[in-house]
Amino acid sequence: MKAYVKASRGPGGEIREVPDPKPREDEVLIRVKASSVCGTDVHIWEWNEWAQHRIKRVPLIMGHELSGEVVEVGRRVQNLRPGDHVSAETHIADGTCYQCRTGKMHICENVQVLGVDRDGVFAEYVTLPETNAWKNDPSIDHALASIQEPLGNAVHCFLPEGNVDELAGKSVLITGAGPIGLQAILVAKTLGAKTVVVTEVNPVRKALAKRMGADYVLDPKELGQTTANAVIEASGGYGVDVSLEMSGHPSSARLVFDALRPGGRVSLLGLFDGEVSLNLDDAIIIKAARVYGIFGRRMFDTWFTVKGLLTNPTFRERMGLMITHRVPISELPRAMDLIKSGQAAKVSLEPKW
């Protein structure tokens, strides 16, 4: 089969002919119908400092967000059949470590991530454990179904302990209107948030944030030191109830706490290039702030919430707005350039080789 491969420990990648994968007894073989580019893929493509330390082996098939069709099942597979439409829970847990055995599979100490630790989905076919293949409603467009995984990250940020009621009537700050930030706007409004404030500097993403339902879109480059005050004013003068950091920018790490009301909560999803300085007394201790580190999705609570959200036609329609470009996978370098230049929000890759 054809696949896009990180061939060496350096920037870029290349199309290669590689052996067709064969499913093990507990796995399914999936024909990839759509995949999408994540920020992690961009890091691996650019071969930044994170990728240099994180990627343990090359050559490696890149990519992890997909929608596809089951074409073959292993002997021990029980609940999936050829023809089923599926997406991937991309964190493959061992099922035996302490975290897995205490209900925290998403932080399995031996986790393998598609396209990072094992071959990914920028290919004609991929194998997945049955456990990680999430069955989709076949009426959902494959491009849309492929971005359920990042949607799960947005849901997890809001519901780190699964309490849906905690958002109703609340004010929310989202720093960064990248793909997950845009999805978070939609999730917040759907789950009843009263006011959603977004910070973003990119013009394309600022416009999309408004279309996704943000009440206020603030540009921190324009506001500078007054950004926190502007967020507090937009939230009625009290500070926001919930802050989500999704940009990975050091100034946003401080902003989510500066704009938070006492007793509020913060979810940290964005990854930072280095250490971040924070006054813990003012940011967390005196404010009695609750702080959550978000990694992946709660397996599989989050997926059921995502499934429920996607039954709403309006939710589906708005989520589709963030897919700004559809590009043949053979033109992956162009897809990367669209993202890095700020022209695109989410790029869907069509299986055209």
Q: Top keywords for this entry?
A:
single chain; 353 residues; alpha/beta; Quinone Oxidoreductase, Chain A, domain 1; Rossmann fold; seven-stranded mixed β-sheet; six-stranded parallel β-sheet
Outline the fold blueprint.
Blueprint: E1 2-6, E2 14-17, E3 27-36, H1 39-46, H2 49-54, E4 60-61, E5 65-73, E6 85-88, E7 91-92, H3 98-101, E8 112-113, E9 125-129, E10 133-135, H4 142-145, H5 148-158, E11 171-175, H6 179-190, E12 195-199, H7 203-212, E13 216-218, H8 220-223, H9 227-234, E14 240-245, H10 250-258, E15 260-268, H11 280-285, E16 290-293, H12 301-309, H13 313-320, E17 323-328, H14 332-340, E18 346-350
Parallel strand pairs: 11-12, 11-14, 12-13, 14-15, 15-16, 17-18
Antiparallel strand pairs: 1-2, 1-4, 3-5, 3-9, 3-18, 5-6, 6-10, 7-8
Helix pairs in contact: 5-6, 5-12, 6-7
